[in-house]
C-alpha cells in the first residue's frame, strides 16, 4: 500500500479520475517500471498485462477508498450535495417508492421508468450519505422509516398526518406503504409509524391514481403486479392493520396485482378472513372497482391455466366453474383444454362446468399442448393456414414448456406467427424469460427485432423491461435495436455494431433520440455505457426533443454519476 493517501480536490470528478487511470495504464503498457511498481504496491498479483479495472481499483486505494465503486459513490455524493437540499430530498422521495409506471405528480401511466431495484438502491445511498434528509419533512421521515422523526413532526403539528406532499400528492400513509429500500433494517418500524399516523387521523383507505385505477395503501403493502414488484417488508402485518382501520379487504388493484405472481393463496386467505369477520363474503360475488368481473370469477379466470392451487381455492370458496375469462370472454374449460391442462379440465368439470366443443383451430392448439403429434399433424394437413397461428407457441410460453414449442415448430408452425397487434412469440418468450423457447425460436429463424404495435418495442425491449436477464443476453448477441441495446447496457454487441458503422454513436434510435439518451437506469451501468459511447464519438452536447443535453437528461433521471461524466469538459 502506498504510504501517502491522495486527496480529492474540489475539481475532482469521475471523468478526471477515469483519465488518470487510463494514463496510468498507458504508462504501464509502454514499459514504465515506476508505474508498474506503483500498481504492485497497491494491488496484489495484478494480471499480466494489467486490466483497466485493476488500475482503477489501485487509484481508488491511493485516494483512501477500498474500491473503485466506493470512490464513485463519494463523487456522486459530492455532485448531489452541490444541487442543494431540496433537490436531494425530491430525488429521495421519487426513487424510494414503487411508482407503477406513473411519473410523480401526474396521473398518467406510461413513459416512466420501471420499478427496478436500482431505484431503491439510489434512494438508500442518498439516505446513507445524507441522513439529515430524513428530518426534512414528515414525508422524508416516513420514506426513511424513521419513527422518532415522524413522532417529532406529529408532536409539533398533528395535521401533518394527513397532509399531501407537494412533490407527488401522496399522503404519509400512502408513502409508507409504497416505500421500498433494499435490505433496510428500519422498515421494522413501519407498523409503529402506521399506527402513529392513523392515531393522528390518517385515512387507511386513501389512494393515488394512474388516471383510471386506485392505488391504495393496501395495494402498496401487497405489492406485486405486472413487473413482479416486491411486497412491503412488513406486508402481512401492515395489511391487517390497514384493514382493521378501514381499508377495504376487497381492494381490486391489490387483488389484481397479487393474482399475477406465484401459485399461492396467502392474500386470498387473508382477504377472505377479513371479509368473513364483517359478514361480507357475499361481496366476492359482486362487482368491485378495478376488476371487470366479480372477484371470485375474475381471479379464477386469471388462475387458469397456470395456477392450479389458486384455482382450487377459488372454486372451493364459490367461484363459478362455468365463468368466462374476463378478457378473452371464453370459457375456462376451453382455456384449460387449449393449454393441455387435463388436471384443470377435470377440476372445473368436477365443480359443474359444462363440456365444450373445440373448433378445428382450437383442436389443433390443444393437440399440440397435450403433445398429440398425430392429431396435430392431421389437422395441419387439412388446414395448412394453421402454420401462421401463434396459439401453440403462446401456450408453450405461458406454461414455460419448451417441448410444446419444439413440437409446434417441428410441425411447421411459423416462429414469426403474430397476433393482430404484431406481438410475436419471441416478444412473449423474451418478456417471460423463457430462455429455452427464445433459443428454439431464434434457431428456427425467427426475426430478431420485429416491432409490435402494442408498445412499439422489439423482443429485446420486452426482455429488458421485464428484467428477463437470460433472454436479454440471448437476444442481445443478434439484435440491431440500438436503443434497446443501450438501455440494456449491452456494450459488447454495441461495440460490434459500431465497428461496422461508427455513425450509430450519434444516429437517432427508434425513439428518435441518439444513444446517449438511451442509458441503463442504474447509475453504474449508465456511466459505463456513457463512457463507452463517448469513446465511440457520441456527442455529449446534442439535445433531445425536450431541449435537454444527455447530462441534463441523466441528472433528471437520478443518474448523477453519469451526469458528472457527461458534463466533463471536452477532451475525453
Automatic annotation (TrEMBL):
Gene3D superfamilies: Ankyrin repeat-containing domain
Transmembrane segments: none
InterPro entries named among the record's database cross-references: Ankyrin_rpt (IPR002110), Ankyrin_rpt-contain_sf (IPR036770), Multifunctional_regulatory (IPR050745)
Coiled-coil residue windows: none
Domain of life, per lineage: Bacteria
Keyword Repeat annotated: yes
SMART domains the record matches: ANK
ANK repeats: 421-453
Alphabetized UniProt keyword annotations: ANK repeat, Repeat
Protein name: Ankyrin repeat
High-level lineage: Bacteria, Pseudomonadati, Pseudomonadota, Alphaproteobacteria, Hyphomicrobiales
